[in-house]
What does this fold into?
Amino acid sequence: EDQVTQSPEALRLQEGESSSLNCSYTVSGLRGLFWYRQDPGKGPEFLFTLYSAGEEKEKERLKATLTKKESFLHITAPKPEDSATYLCAVRGNQGGKLIFGQGTELSVKP
Amino acid sequence: DVKVTQSSRYLVKRTGEKVFLECVQDMDHENMFWYRQDPGLGLRLIYFSYDVKMKEKGDIPEGYSVSREKKERFSLILESASTNQTSMYLCAFSSGNTGELFFGEGSRLTVL
It folds into this structure.
């Protein structure tokens, strides 16, 4: 069964304190790993798609990396506006649906 | 930017009422989805559709139905709302075969 586990559940950082969020997955035939950002009371906003181990993608202070078992979302010198819940999802061969993790709630204090 | 518009951001309904949640996309995308999101349970797929008049059950279809009469509109229907259907409902579309989902703003439904 396809499964996604995100850790930690919550992360508190000081402004400028770099860190990483983890997304561990098991999937039959990875067809894509997706990262989303979700602000309170709003729909998830698409950030990145990664398709194969070794692939990396960057956007401003965010960098996503992928191995055969997990993905990391690295946040460099975060700012308070980076505070949000970050969701990870995978798409496998089983019907092509996205399977979402529970999310990591990130809080960045000034 | 492509947009997904959900008709109501906040709704309050009574147990037993029929509820319609509407979702409209402004491009010609075929694949549309309805999810619900609950604390501790994450995003769960209710129904999806790959074309007009076509629908497929997701992981939690019980108590819900959908309608897709036109390509741009995908409606979620609660035939008889119950308190355990209080949730955030999210509509999404996917573009081509890449799999990325693009979500609407969400509809927060409270059933009393």
In short: Chain B has a mean pLDDT of 92. The radius of gyration of chain B is 13 Å. Residues 36 and 42 of chain B are 8 Å apart (CA to CA).
